[in-house]
Here is the input.
Amino acid sequence: MKNILIFGGSGFIGAEICNVLCSVGHVICADNYSRNEQKDSINSSVEHVECDVTDSTSVIGLCKRADVVINLAFINGTTNFYSRPRDVFKVALEGQLNVINGISRSNVERFIYASSSEVYQTPPNVPTSEDIPLMIPDINNPRYSYGGGKIIGEMMCKYYLPKEVSYQVFRPHNIYGPNMGFEHVITELIKKIYNANLVNGTQDVYKIELQGSGKSTRSFCYIKDFGDGFKCLWDNAANNEVYNIGTNQEVSISYLVEILSKIMGRNLTFDDIPLPPGSTTRRCPDISKLEKLGYTPKFTLHEGLEVMHQWFLKKYG
Here is the structure.
């Protein structure tokens, strides 16, 4: 049985990966447990170790126990990209450097790196395939501390990781589900709708703020579909390749709000507010490469949002 070391394993996506892989090996979840930790939702067979990915000594020591290493450790959340760009970039750069240095001093045979859809920024084609050029449109925009860090992390897999270690990179696209944090558009909208005030002079119309008139588009992937996609990558992916994980259903944010308003039983109107600088107006992955490995998303957006609403009511209602 292989030892599988997951840095950032107690986060939202990390917890799902821990649960997916605990049946195929001994999983070691390494995390500093600073944000939205998911210990209670992780299989009891998983070993937990407190470790900050920027602590090189701890990282190198843990890598010596591993056959496979997965690096998910990052500071996520759009708000953090703008308010904490130096912290975001520090974890991106130092974390990946420490992990690969640890792999170099151990007997690790495989490395999997969690990148992001943010590496595409404003792609020339939508749906977007893995071979589209990656870009940083403006280094002065703090938003790109995250996407830039992910691009550097991908390059380090290709040009800094020891050649004898095989790797895969995956780029998740708007993964959502119960127990996620509130830095995601879906949880932000649910919270906004739940806390919305009545429009003056009405008894059943509520008002929220919506960025860019809700015209921006995204594709949303339920966490269990992500887990299925990751397992396809784990079982069948080619060495030294990159894979999108998500769905190919592109929807506008206004359509997302429409579904949520029906599920939550609230008539909505909204005030238009500007998009943050550097925001992408369209994003949807081409998932055909992963589909060839056997991946088929199962959850509809409506089904996933129903689950999200019930989770929100149970935990915060």
User: Anything to note?
Assistant: The two ends are 43 Å apart (CA to CA).
